Structures are given as structure tokens and as C-alpha cells.
Amino acid sequence: MMHVSGKKLNRILKVLPKSSAIKKIAGENWYDVSFNCEEKETIPKLKKMGCQGIIEIPLNKVIL
């Protein structure tokens, strides 16, 4: 999960999986973005691109 400014959202979405969830933060031009990813390089790349408040949560189980 992370926060992304509206100005950078389209550029950030090109790096993330298509299944990312995006919610607008009330009263701001910022978005809360949640996604699943296995690539270790993704978080440092997102930080360099301007994402903030990045939270990494380990995934224990996926039920399909």
C-alpha cells in the first residue's frame, strides 16, 4: 500500500500490476494504491518516483 499524488498517478500505474486498487483520499489530490507484487526492486523504484507512506505487508495465503 502507498500514497501517490494525483500528478504522478498515471506514471506510477505503468509500473504496477493491472489489478491494483486505487482510492481517492478525501479532500486531497492524493490516492491510496494497493497492489500485490513479488519483485524486490519495485519498492525502491516507487520511492524514487515519489510515492509516500509505503507499507509492505507479507502475504501468508492466497485463496482462489
How would you summarize what this structure contains?
The chain is an alpha+beta fold. It has 2 helices and 3 strands. A 3-stranded antiparallel sheet has the order 1-3-2, with no helix packed on it.
Structure overview:
- This protein is an alpha+beta fold and 64 residues long.
- It has one domain.
- Helix content is 19%, strand content 20%.
- It has 2 helices and 3 strands, in the order βαββα.
- Strands 1-3-2 form a 3-stranded antiparallel beta sheet, with no helix packed on it.
- A hairpin with a 5-residue loop joins β2 and β3 (30-34).
- It is globular and about 35 Å long.
- The mean pLDDT is 91.
Main features:
single chain; 64 residues; alpha+beta; 3-stranded antiparallel β-sheet; 3 strands; 20% strand; globular
Net shape: globular
From the structure provided, what is the oligomeric state, counting identical versus distinct chains?
A: single chain
Cα end-to-end separation: 21 Å
Number of domains: 1
Number of helical segments? 2
Helical content class? 10-25%
Radius of gyration: 12 Å
- Element-level helix/strand string: EHEEH
Low-confidence stretches: none
Mean pLDDT: 91
Helix and strand content put the structural class at alpha+beta
Question: What share of the residues does DSSP label as strand, in percent?
Answer: 15-25%
Layout of secondary structure:
Layout: E1 2-5, H1 9-13, E2 21-24, E3 30-34, H2 42-48
Antiparallel strand pairs: 1-3, 2-3
